[in-house]
Amino acid sequence: MTASPAGRTAACTRRTKFNPLTWLAAAGSTAAITTAAASWQLSVAVVAACLGLSLAGGTARRVVPAAAAVLVPLGLSLLVLHGLFFPEGRTVLAEWGPSRVTAEGLEFAGQRILQLAAVVMALLLFSFSVNVPDLVAALSARGVQGRFAFVLASTLTLLPAIAARAQRIRQAQESRGLVVTRSRVSRAGAFRLQAVPLVLSLIEDAGTRAAALEARGLSSTGPRTSYREVPDSSLQRTARAVLVLLAVAAVVLRLVQAGSGG
User: Fold this and answer.
1) Positive or negative CA dihedral for 60, 62, 63, 66?
2) Which residues cross the membrane (predicted)?
């Protein structure tokens, strides 16, 4: 089921009312606060909120596959690492030689996976929702020029293609006879066969996009004249300042708690 053209137009209209820096501050502060809080309840709430916003904005069909492509391999690695080799684990559920599956290890891995999912979903929602030309114009209007805007624009224009490209690589490998069974060895081999061409193609694509953006003067540090007006308001500027302060406060509080052994 896809959103109607009227629905997509309404979603785009709602997004244009917000400055891209507001979306950036919201995504960055959400990632920082979720990481600092290390609370699975907060992580679940952030994931649910991101799913709801992506459904409302019509980007769920791109955000969810991209998040799955990132979270599935990382989640499996966290389960193996902490589920089998968690030094603080005391409640042993299963044991194979030096490897032990502990309840504490699985709980720790689950919390880290939820925390990672919240961060990934927040950043992907931003990358699939933000208007890149508006973001670059907003950054340039505030004196953020040169390499930072150049790298940011290159990255954001590349992110939406990752999930589709990974799917195409998987289909191409399967057409050449790749068979993935339930064994860990088979899955690890299949992941390697798909990850290597994906990473190489992304590097090549990033170089091509970077050359195109640089040819258009995006990496120049000289004076600029922007013909693109990006809406902003004092309320949004205040909201961005509050979000940044909340993120900094959450990180500082976490560092203080870690230093005091809390």
Assistant:
1) positive
2) 21-54, 66-87, 108-128, 148-166, 238-256
